[in-house]
Amino acid sequence: MSRAVEAPDTQPIDRARALLRGAHHVVVLTGAGVSAESGVPTFRGAGGLWRQYRAEDLATPHAFARDARLVWEWYGWRRTIVSGCAPNAAHHALAAAALSHADFRIITQNVDGLHARAAREPRAIPLELHGSLYRTRCTRCAHRWDDRSTVDATSGDTLPHCDACGALARPDIVWFGEALDDAVLGEAMTLAANADACLVVGTSALVHPAAGLADLTRRNGGSVVEVNVEDTPLTGSATVVLRGTAATIVPDLLAS
User: Fold this and answer.
1) Same-domain status, 10 and 53
2) Which of 172, 228, 234, 240 could cysteine-pair with 137, CB 3.0–4.6 Å?
3) Closest Cα partner for 190 from 30, 31, 29, 27?
4) pTM for the complete prediction?
5) Could you list the residue range(s) of the whole structural domain that residue 168 is in?
């Protein structure tokens, strides 16, 4: 990795640009903050209630086993809400960078599909660590499929079912208490370990194992650039920290 020589008065965004431009392999990790300015609601924490339920009450295998209709009703509502949101300037800037540079890869913790909507070609579509709101999978066989249909949660019979075997289907999302897909996590870890620079955008750096990806880059000699509106557990070890919203900073950071 080539590293730029910095003058003592170099501004943080100039330092970050130099690090990213000097890197042969760049990996980007995004979290909820990258979608905030698209109007994607917060489904966890304060203000995250749906009826009387929290996300932690519904996004679990136990909740689905107990009341699949209720869980699918919630995900159907989420699909409707998020379908009305559009990718913002940060999504578009990251997609453009991925299309321009073969070794610029995006990994996301988000399930909202906005990165994929911003991508004009498959190589700009991110690695989705936690699944997708717009993908469904069978509870019995390994069948998965893209699914933007409206969910009819009127009864158990009207819920999504597998076209291959007829079993009840579920959202293809990693729920609380479930492990990430080994292949997806393995690819993410390999990308992070081999990256010369890791750009972390809008993530709390609290959810593991995703939170450990930037540290993989750092421990293998790479640089870490954090973009967030507030401090996170990653801030102290980041090479450069940029404070502000993703839609404001990322396009400027990645501008040619």
Assistant:
1) no
2) 172
3) 27
4) 0.92
5) 42-84+133-173
